[in-house]
Design a protein that fits this description.
Elements (H helix, E strand, L loop, with lengths): L2 H21 L32 E3 L1 H8 L5 E4 L3 H6 L6 E2 L7 H6 L7 E4 L4 H12 L5 E4 L2 H7 L7
Parallel strand pairs: 1-5, 2-3, 2-4, 4-5
Length: 158
């Protein structure tokens, strides 16, 4: 058996196969995900779960919507003087800065949902943290507080 013609035949087949492979249409390269510009990517959905501190911040509109549920308690943690000057309808005043704040919140029903606010959002975060530490599972803080509520034209009682 003569190996030279056989080697030439195999070489010709391999050469023809590689030419055929070169002539076949190649799929278009796909850009990796990280090459897609950020503006072209859809925005991440907002988180709708409590934050690590045990409460969730709400916009004025979300807070207003939740306040329509009569079972939810609106907890105003401002001073009595601030409360008397104007407050949300159905609000209950428990001053977070008062010496007896811990005693008053300890007597609240932990099974209820609490919508907490202060003047601008700082004291209500403190109150939500304290309530969360006591085991209150359903806490919502009004972002921007009473000031944001009134700027949005929401109802106020005196």
């Amino acid at each position: 058996m003569n190996l030279i013609p056989m080697a030439a035949a195999i070489g010709a087949l391999l050469s023809a196969g590689s030419l055929a492979a070169q002539e076949a249409p190649q799929p278009a390269p796909v850009a990796p995900a990280e090459a897609v510009p950020a503006a072209a990517q859809p925005p991440a959905p907002p988180l709708r779960v409590p934050n690590a501190r045990g409460f969730r911040n709400l916009s004025v509109e979300e807070f207003a919507q939740m306040s329509t549920n009569q079972a939810n308690i609106i907890l105003d943690v401002r001073t009595p003087k601030e409360f008397e000057a104007g407050h949300l309808p159905r609000a209950v005043n428990v001053d977070v800065l008062a010496a007896d704040f811990d005693q008053k919140i300890a007597s609240l029903d932990k099974a209820r949902t609490y919508l907490v606010h202060c003047a601008s959002g700082g004291r209500s975060v403190t109150a939500c943290k304290q309530l969360g530490e006591l085991g209150f599972p359903k806490l919502y803080n009004l972002s921007g507080g009473f000031k944001a509520w009134t700027r949005a034209g929401k109802p106020v009682e005196k």
